Amino acid sequence: MTIQRTWIDRAGELRDEPGLIDRLRSDDSTRVIAVRDGRVRIVDDELLLVGADDVSDATLALLGRTADGTHLLLAALAPEAGAVDTAPDETWLGLRDLGGRLSPVDTELLIEALALAGWLRDAPFCPTCGGGTELRQGGWSRRCLACGREHFPRTDPAVIVAVESSDGERLLLGANANWNGRMYSCFAGFTEAGESLESTVHRELEEEAGVTLAELRYISSQPWPFPRSLMLGFRAVVVDEDAARPDGEEIIDVRWFTRDEVASALAGDGPVGLPGPASIARALILDWFEGRG
Questions:
Q1: Alpha-helical segments (H) within the chain
Q2: What is the pTM (predicted TM-score) of this model?
Q3: pLDDT per position as a tens digit, 181-200
């Protein structure tokens, strides 16, 4: 699913406050979301938010505050850390496991927490000189203790495109080699250095599916914290439908699907599998199928 508005106030004006994390940690009203190895605790299809005293041996960072003013902290746990409570490991779920089951508020909070936790875990050293760093701005920046450079979480733009026929009645989807032909989806790829989003779309479609595009329009975006992507969704119209062919490496097959075939696939009846409800790929397919845009 895509997120069209902001539900969580990230409270950026608080990040430079001295002693912010310690103050919020000592406040009984503060709620904490714990992330361990890309997973969070889920109870009855809701994020488990706990008090600061319920987590230990974790890196804490400010996530923001809810509409009622409750402050939210991230507790980034080491992969080997124990559960927040005595619940079994299978109640710790990742974004793909949840498949769109969470509310919009919880979904936004989950993605923010996963993205920031990944950066806190993976970037402890200065990429310039290799020196150790200290967290600043409530966990949203690092300052190198050796060279003094400041570093921030990265977001890498990627495009994802639903390609339709010139009459709008068929949709071109591709099967990635990693899926072994079991699932078809929209075409996607990362924007390269010095490249615009539009150029990325045209390049990726020529490389992966052998087609050129006559029309292109932006639809919506979705943050995707694996590891730090921002997926920018487009719809496009192909110039020559017969030119479609897979690259044979990343994409092993491309197919034009009718509305009836997409309807069956959305219902889980074949002829192929489609992306799950948590992904912007499915939202783009639904956009086309339901005649929106």
A1: 20-25, 95-98, 104-122, 197-209, 259-266, 280-289
A2: 0.87
A3: 889 999 999 999 999 999 99
